[in-house]
Amino acid sequence: MRFFSWVLMVLVANSLQSSKIPKELIGEWKEFKQRTVSGDSLNWVGEMFEPFYHIALQENGEGLDFTTEGMKFRYKLLNDTLYMGNRKYVMDSLSEGTLVLRVWDSFSPSEDDKVHFFNKIIK
Fold first, then answer.
1. pLDDT tens-digit series, residues 51-79
2. 87-113 pLDDT per residue, tens
3. Which of 102, 78, 90, 79 lies closest to 22, judged by CA?
4. What gap in Å lies between CA 41 and CA 65, rounded to an integer?
5. Backbone dihedral angles phi then psi of residue 107, each to the nearest 5 degrees
């Protein structure tokens, strides 16, 4: 099973195309506590918590390297969905000047699944 997850990660990561990444996206993202998740509608409070696992974004020349739990892969900009390990990752624009990375603890999340929000404000 672990081998299958690794193969899936490699296949998905290889299928992503790189793009120019604004310098403002580089660096540490902060996790925020959410209230509810309803479809694509996000209702959350801006209470900051320490990330429960480390997420780092680094420039690699043409794209962005996203590192979490010791694994690194290439990520495009908005509205990408990536499946890695047992998690689902989605990069969204919540509002002008703010990006949100949503992380689900399963591939096929239900409304009851916990969603982690990582917020990056672009000044």
1. 333 344 444 444 445 555 545 444 444 44
2. 666 665 544 445 556 666 655 555 555
3. 78
4. 27
5. -70, -40
